[in-house]
Design a protein that fits this description.
Blueprint (H helix, E strand, L loop, with lengths): L9 E4 L12 E14 L6 E11 L4 E4 L4 E3 L21 H20 L1
Antiparallel strand pairs: 1-2, 1-5, 2-3, 3-4
């Protein structure tokens, strides 16, 4: 199953057969997942299908099926970049314990003052 996108999410086009210039192109979701009628650009037949409204980087707005978009990956961290423990999915016990002690000392000082 593909990811459910929200309005404002950035996505990347994929698996396009007829409009291959959209493969790898970034777009912004401007309309959520819904049933819409859209005209096919190849045979000009109006069809009803489920999809998102996407505004591509070249300015074109299109109705795109969920299988034709994927989420954009977040940027990687640089090797020398400082990362806080809150951004990591786990935290060593020593770090948690040290923070708890420091917080309790701060609370005690506030109570005395």
């Amino acid at each position: 199953m593909s990811k459910l996108f929200k309005v404002g999410d950035i996505c990347i086009g994929q698996n396009f057969v007829t409009n291959v210039s959209r493969n790898g192109m970034e777009g912004v979701v401007i309309g959520g997942l819904a049933v819409r009628t859209a005209r096919n650009r190849v045979d000009h037949v109006v069809r009803t299908k489920v999809g998102y409204l996407i505004k591509w980087t070249d300015g074109v707005v299109g109705h795109v099926g969920p299988h034709n978009i994927r989420p954009k990956k977040p940027p990687r961290h640089r090797l020398n970049e400082m990362v806080s423990w809150e951004t990591v999915g786990w935290m060593p016990f020593e770090v948690k314990f040290d923070r708890a002690i420091k917080q309790s000392l701060r609370d005690q000082l506030r109570e005395k003052a």
